[in-house]
Amino acid sequence: GIRKFTRNYRHTSLTKIKLIIFKDPETEKVFRSVFCTETSDDPEDNEMTHMRFAAASGEDKFKSGGDKKFTFGSVTLTVKCGDITEERCDAIVNGIKENMDLSSYGAVCKSILEKCGPSFQEECISKMQDIRRVGVTMTSGGKLPCRKLIHLNMDKFANNLDTGLYQVLQLAELNRCRSLAVPALGTGRKGADIHKIKRMIYEAIEKFGAADRILSDIRLVVYKRNMVSDFIVESPKEE
């Protein structure tokens, strides 16, 4: 019933439904199997459902050894599992289509819209020419626990993510950000090559960290716990 409602009423004012489950492992297992394994025709629906249920059930905590840290010159990269919209930092990165419509691309966009509301969508639309021209743009942090949101044009940079992310890092540096949270950009797309995405993200951070930087704390926040290991295995310079 909930799935049918969200598919048919994507722009409803009803944005939060809470299922209260008694602390029983078997009951929780049943609900997780429904919300995290049932699929729809829209991969973004599956991605969003998993992220929300994972956060609510506590599955967002990476239990296999905790966060992992890597050093790239002047930068420390932390790979962690969680909801990026809850990260307390100077700036959060958001991959978005160049039309700047938060409702039309990915789980992070939709979570931002849900938490920040229609007025923030209007702020994003006002930056549409910037992101079309340059590929990256910055807005306020809305109601999120960050000062700024840096938006990356995924229409432009989906296949050369390293170039796009490097521009994001430069913009964060220019605005004197000391900490930045980055999602696993592009991994929600159908058929996404996660290992290629990981390589491009790491290459951008390694290139950026080669010089002395104000921005020294970068966090790669992965929403699916079972995907975290894909961004850790064989990663260089682990602390």
From TrEMBL:
Residues 64-239 form the Macro domain. It comes from the Eukaryota. GO terms for cellular component: cytoplasm; nucleus. The keyword Transcription does not apply. GO terms for molecular function: glycosyltransferase activity; transcription corepressor activity. Keywords: Glycosyltransferase, NAD, Nucleus, Transferase. InterPro entries: Macro_dom, Macro_dom-like, Mono-ARTD/PARP. GO terms for biological process: negative regulation of gene expression. Its main location: nucleus. It is found in: Nucleus. The keyword Nucleus applies. PANTHER family: PARP/ZINC FINGER CCCH TYPE DOMAIN CONTAINING PROTEIN, POLY [ADP-RIBOSE] POLYMERASE. This is Macro domain-containing protein. It comes from Lymnaea stagnalis (Great pond snail).
